[in-house]
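Q: What residues go here?
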């Protein structure tokens, strides 16, 4: 599968994933924090299956014209 997450989207997913994962060790120390693996892995890989189902992408167009 080709990447469908842009760099900002990926960075946010990684940070949020690590924050949720931290809940296993600090704060409420709940196993619900293991759900942080979902945004963490999708952010690292750059692919979100839900985006594919919704025909959505944050990568941007390769033909985008940059204005000065």
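A:
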């Amino acid at each position: 599968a080709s990447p469908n997450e842009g760099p900002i989207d990926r960075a946010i997913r990684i940070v949020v994933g690590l924050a949720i994962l931290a809940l296993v060790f600090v704060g409420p120390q709940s196993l619900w924090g293991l759900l942080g693996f979902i945004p963490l892995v999708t952010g690292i890989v750059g692919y979100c299956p839900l985006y594919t189902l919704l025909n959505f992408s944050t990568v941007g167009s390769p033909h985008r014209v940059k204005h000065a």
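A: Context that may help when evaluating the design: The longest helix spans residues 7-22. The two ends are 33 Å apart (CA to CA).
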